[in-house]
Amino acid sequence: MARSSTFPEIVELNVGGQVYVTRLETLTAAPNSLLWSKFTQSSPADLPTDSKGRFFFDRDGFLFRYILDYLRDSELSLPEFFKERKRLQKEADFFQLPELSRRLAAVSKDSSSTDDSGEQEEAELTSPVTTSSSCSDRALRSPGASSGYITVGYRGSYTIGRDIQADAKFRRVARITVCGKISLTKEVFGETLNESRDPDRPPDKYTSRYYLKYNFLEQAFDRLAEAGFHMVACNSTGTCSYGSSDPGEDKLWTSYTEYVFSR
């Protein structure tokens, strides 16, 4: 039987395409869990690896961050309006973490019950878990829901041929940007928010450099609506130029559009 010392102290994982670097001590923090078993009862050669030698698990890479957080602190902290609790519970079951699964199930049971006043009871957990079966209703009625503005913008381009009756040739939206207060944008968009262009700004500050991991504006609109936001304004600008010096070439149009949401 191989000992855990056969593994390095710092372990690199590839979980569903997402790379994590953590301590061996963290992975083995929960006795009898799947990760504990893999990294104490096996040797490195027994585990599948990716092309760069990282230990590979074919699971949800984005939700694995919450598994790691739980292993580090034995607590569960989810973002407000977290919508993937059932999927996270499935991941907890897979990684054989019964206490984490129990806590998530307790939140599920509690969210479907009401007290005498008709308001939802709070989950009796030792960790700060926030969840809701109706994000929009929760955001509108909860006194703790923060108010503010979020602006969603995108650049698009398309071509129109000389025959204006012909169909326009639309191009794929390259990037959907997000402007607003850091804490508010993270609350609404969570893991779909790419912070790589402004990673260290404090939560109480504002940014216009974030963008979304979406290809469709409607995905952003759905997320905002579920969080209780309503569109209050929009504007768009556009320019037209020829693709070359030949006036017979198709016209290339570029535009920038912003949508302002408020809660």
UniProtKB/TrEMBL annotation:
Region called Disordered, residue ranges: 108-142
Compositional bias (Polar residues): 127-136
UniProt cross-references to SMART domains, sorted A to Z: BTB
Major localization listed first in the record, in broad terms: membrane
Listed InterPro entries: BTB/POZ_dom, H1_KCTD8_12_16, SKP1/BTB/POZ_sf, T1-type_BTB
Ranges annotated as spanning the membrane: none
Span of domain BTB: 9-112
Annotated GO CC locations: postsynaptic membrane; presynaptic membrane; receptor complex
One of the GO BP terms on file: regulation of G protein-coupled receptor signaling pathway
Localization (cell): Postsynaptic cell membrane; Presynaptic cell membrane
Pfam family, one: H1_KCTD8_12_16
Entry keyword set: Cell membrane, Cell projection, Ion channel, Ion transport, Membrane, Phosphoprotein, Postsynaptic cell membrane, Synapse, Transport
SUPFAM superfamilies linked: POZ domain
Keyword Ion transport set for record: yes
Function, as annotated: Auxiliary subunit of GABA-B receptors that determine the pharmacology and kinetics of the receptor response. Increases agonist potency and markedly alter the G-protein signaling of the receptors by accelerating onset and promoting desensitization.
Protein name, per record: Potassium channel tetramerisation domain containing 12.2
Source species of the chain: Nothobranchius kadleci (African annual killifish)
Gene from which the chain derives: KCTD12.2
